Predict the structure.
Amino acid sequence: MTRLVTTDVPAFRAAIAELTPRVRAAADGAGSGIRIIPGTGAWWERLGDPAEGYLVDEPSPAPAEVHARLADLTVPVVVSRRRVRPDVAADAAPLETPRHVVVDAWGGRAEAATLLRDAVGWARVLAGGPLAVVARDAGSVAEVLALAGAGGVGVSVTRAVGGGVGATLTAVALGARRVEVRVDSATPVVEVVHEDDTGRSVRPARRESAERLALRRLVDALDSGERVRDLDDLAADDALVSNG
């Protein structure tokens, strides 16, 4: 079955072509198949158009009341977050619950809120589950969150802002096994390293583009009927950033 894709996000044109014949671009925006929505501004308002499924690209943080409304959607929604890719998250997931997780992020002021939300996302992944805010300290150039995970996992997240462009993020899980994740906007490749008493293992780089990955996941969900949890994870991360 070939599904129509409607989008005005240029970055997804190559992904549509690569996934042919599973998908094809809808002519003149016609049809109610898959809709790819840029995550700028009030992106959630565009999820009311008829569609089989939605793909939201790099969404800006949304308030809790918006996420509550989105929870009522009956079609799958895939969220593309290039700094928190689900395939890389699966590579980084610790085999055992860590004792502590440390996440440090740096970027420009324009994306400060989104960068902090993605840093919290990596804290959630490495801690192995939901987090709660213990304390928060925000200054003019840095913000620090102390979080707690299940089983007594301690988590610290720091986001610093400065001039220039781009962003970097390092997330480390400490326990019987050390897991380190390095994200740099200068390269699409995310580095994941596992270390324990048997040695050091660097996970193979994920080469699939973020756009192709997100679109493929949505098509797979539509074909299988499997529930997508992207909005749940996004809501949890947004809540920690906004309510901390």
About this structure: The CA atoms of residues 27 and 118 lie 34 Å apart. The chain is about 25% helix and 35% strand. The longest strand covers residues 100-108.
